[in-house]
Amino acid sequence: AQSVTQLDSQVPVFEEAPVELRCNYSSSVSVYLFWYVQYPNQGLQLLLKYLSGSTLVKGINGFEAEFNKSQTSFHLRKPSVHISDTAEYFCAVKGNTDKLIFGTGTRLQVFP
Amino acid sequence: DAGVIQSPRHEVTEMGQEVTLRCKPISGHDYLFWYRQTMMRGLELLIYFNNNVPIDDSGMPEDRFSAKMPNASFSTLKIQPSEPRDSAVYFCASSSLAGTTQYFGPGTRLTVL
Question: Could you tell me which of A39, A63, A97, B2 has the fewest CB atoms within 10 Å of its CB?
Fold first, then answer.
């Protein structure tokens, strides 16, 4: 079975500062990894995904994530955040089943 | 493509009433997933279908919940009778057989009074 841990429930940051949202996973099989973003009163939108190949994955809105197999991590980063990045971010893992296992989410709050 | 479509977007009902939520997946997608999101429990997978067949309903909380997918372009999630603790946002998502990305609908916010 797979599991996902997002250690930070909330991350406050000032506009134009860098940010890292942490995600660790547990799995006995190879995995695919995803980051989704949820803006208020909306559904989840895919930010980026790691399926194979390069461990550095670039997504939409300037976000990127790095797959680290030895650390079982898939942290999300952005070098300079905007007010509009304020949202809930979910890390998810897919193993050898059809299911996505989601973390509990990290609320990113960007202040002016 | 219009994306995953859900209706209604908001539903307010009284305890004991039947509630039906609807979902139209992205055309050509073979998988359909129903999720529930609450503050307390986060995002929970309720049930998913492959080629209109229910594959795993282990997340369905009780017999009051049922889901159907009569054809490739339509699915329903029904709660009968509804209870206040069913209040949540219900999401539908779909994915293709070959792909691994799930595409989510905008959700239905259900309030049971």
Answer: B2
